[in-house]
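HUMAN: Spend a minute on the protein record below and explain its fold to me.
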Amino acid sequence: MTIGEFSGITGISAYTLRYYEKKGLFCVSRDSVGRRDYSEDDIEWVKFIQRLKDTGMLLRDIKHYSDLRYQGDDTMAERMELLIQHRKSVVEEKRKWEEYLRNLDEKIGIYQERISGK
């Protein structure tokens, strides 16, 4: 499928897809005239890359994970370890955001009490 079709399916812009390819995050097949030719397998992979990025994984770490993935099943343990470490970071970020939310709720509560107490 073309980059436009792939972009529509994944919700990721053609610009971002080209950037991911340029950074070596994923490899794209080419057709006989050199145009990108995305496969069904590429859909879930690029969505996973986007989720890693959205959860704060650095591009260099995504690149390392991607390199390992393309090396095959012998790298599963190392890939799992990368994901376990990233999960720890996500859990810590979640804890921080929950604390920030509690602080905001407390402040909003103070304002609500003062405004309604007038």
Remarks:
- Residues 54 and 73 are 25 Å apart (CA to CA).
